[in-house]
Write a structure and sequence with these properties.
Elements: H1 2-30, H2 32-45, H3 54-77, H4 81-105, H5 122-141, H6 155-175, H7 191-194, E1 202-211, E2 214-219, E3 229-238, E4 252-253, H8 261-266, E5 270-276, H9 287-299, E6 304-308, H10 312-322, E7 328-330, H11 333-339, E8 345-350, E9 353-359, H12 383-431
Parallel strand pairs: 5-6, 6-7
Antiparallel strand pairs: 1-2, 1-3, 4-7, 5-8, 8-9
């Protein structure tokens, strides 16, 4: 009974570690640029920003994502149990003290361990790591009690397949866009609504009035007549009110500095936002496509703005380099990086709703002579194709694993049965030797 309980406890810890690491690795591999930006935040917080170029941060991002996904996957399938358990423990021994430091000093708002899929506070992350650290200790101590799902001789097939899958998803996200968008600027999002507080709370004003030496509080609903004299007022929050999901999106015209955020988000027409967090580092190899879309927007009277965080020199350099004639606006760099994981990228809005997004590697095929957006495939948000793509991606990953596992278990069971029959036959022959 004791051994059964121990086996159950070890495999419960195994599942906790597997789910946490697979989810963390998958969230990062889906959005490698997001982890790259978080690594930059870490470097800046520790005064090492000058030692962390974007290329190095991106390599670390992909490597970390695949490493976590590999650990979780190996733990789930019982692959290389001793080595994998020790790797998980070493990982937690490094990151648990780090998250404690982040919780105590709070140099960044969240650690980014689950990317944008699940944002935890620094203290929540630390307590989560304490649980995972304890589970990793259990796995190291009793690694032999972990359930092995795949035979030892075929472990390498499953492991290589998982690594190829993770790397392919990361490369797809870099070349196109993340297969799933966890951020508030996803297709279909209503930006004006997300910029407003949510919840059932509301601010209520009360008025302190006086009459014949008596003071009493009133609201706007029961405001007294003119025989009362005003004394004071106060405003209180009644109920709960959550802060807005988007609280830092502001568009300023360049070089005037006029705030046109409301104008852009309330425009009933389609609006193109050409987004380049840094024009100095933006891809200029597709400038014909950028200018062609601007010409299309002009031909159909669609507003077109380039949003960037670059300074005057950066904007002037881009204009000289590409011959850009579209208007430029300045926006916070972090906001732009959150809007589109591409530098540059393109976003299509209509009355503040995100209709579509494209990376610079896959700009829409629109020309001056093309019909209006209402008559094209680009004019409406397409949710079904994205869902179908994700389902196909998961099936491509899960179905081969299931098939390999079933074949492996079938071979294992068949081998056992054959060996068992051989032993029984040999035993029978020994009892009844041929005379």
């Amino acid at each position: 009974m004791k051994q059964k309980l121990l086996w159950l406890a070890v495999n419960m810890c195994r599942l906790i570690i597997a789910v946490a690491f697979i989810f963390s690795g998958l969230a990062k591999v889906i959005d490698p640029h997001g982890t790259e930006y978080k690594i930059h935040d870490y470097a800046e917080a520790f005064g090492l920003g000058h030692l962390m170029p974007s290329v190095l941060a991106l390599i670390l991002s992909i490597s970390l994502a695949i490493f976590e996904f590999r650990i979780g996957f190996c733990v789930l399938f019982g692959i290389y149990r001793r080595f994998t358990s020790r790797a998980a423990l070493a990982f937690m021994l490094v990151f648990t003290p780090l998250t404690l430091y982040l919780a105590l000093t709070n140099p960044i708002s969240d650690c980014g361990c689950f990317g944008d899929a699940l944002v935890l506070s620094n203290w929540q992350t630390f307590f989560k790591n304490i649980v995972l650290l304890g589970c990793a200790v259990v796995l190291v101590r009793w690694h032999q009690k972990q359930l092995r799902v795949i035979s030892e001789g075929r472990q390498w097939i499953i492991l290589i397949y998982a690594q190829i899958f993770a790397l392919s998803v990361a490369l797809y996200a870099l070349w196109r866009l993340p297969v799933y968008d966890f951020r508030p600027y996803r297709v279909g999002a209503n930006l004006p609504e997300l910029m407003q507080p949510s919840g059932d709370g509301q601010y209520v004003s009360s008025f302190l009035m006086e009459k014949e030496g008596k003071q009493e509080w009133f609201t706007t609903e029961d405001y007294p007549d003119s025989t009362w004299t005003f004394v004071d007022t106060k405003t209180e929050l009644v109920g709960e009110l959550e802060p807005p999901v988007i609280d830092n999106f502001t568009i300023y015209t360049w070089p005037e500095g006029e705030d046109i955020t409301e104008i852009v988000l309330s425009d009933p027409e389609y609006t193109f936002l050409f987004i380049a967090p840094s024009l100095e580092n933006a891809d200029d190899g597709h400038m014909d496509a950028y200018n062609r879309i601007y010409e299309y927007a002009n031909a159909h009277a669609y507003p077109f703005y380039c949003l960037t965080s670059s300074n005057d020199a950066g904007i002037a350099r881009w204009q000289d380099l590409t011959g850009a004639e579209y208007p430029f606006c300045q926006t916070d760099e972090l906001t732009l990086k959150t809007m589109v994981r591409s530098n540059p990228g393109l976003m299509l809005l209509k009355q503040g709703v995100v209709i579509a997004k494209w990376p610079y590697t896959d700009m829409p095929d629109l020309k001056e002579v093309s019909p209006t957006l209402e008559k094209t495939e680009y004019g409406k948000p397409d949710y079904t194709s994205k869902t179908r793509f994700i389902v196909k991606l998961l099936l491509w990953f899960i179905i081969p694993l299931v098939v390999i596992t079933i074949l492996d278990r079938t071979w294992w069971w068949t081998t056992i049965q054959i060996n068992r029959r051989r032993k029984l036959k040999k035993k029978s022959e020994n009892k009844n030797p041929v005379s």
